[in-house]
Amino acid sequence: MECKACGREHDVNRGGWVILATDDLICDPVDRPDCWEKVSGWYIQRREEEQLKHDLNRGLTNANT
What we know:
Oligomer: single chain
Number of helices: 1
Helix content: 40-55%
Number of strands: 2
Distance between the termini: 48 Å
Shape: elongated
């Protein structure tokens, strides 16, 4: 399997990786914190986009209050 952030191949029978609750594999954050930062940034952005879609679908935004 490969790291979602950097594409580095990992042998799942050996260490050096973490599998997230989303089933994404990333390099061990202790060894390569840049992979963790990149993936967490993606998820934060995705969550913000989903919240924006939710707010727009409800018709309730700060602009309308």
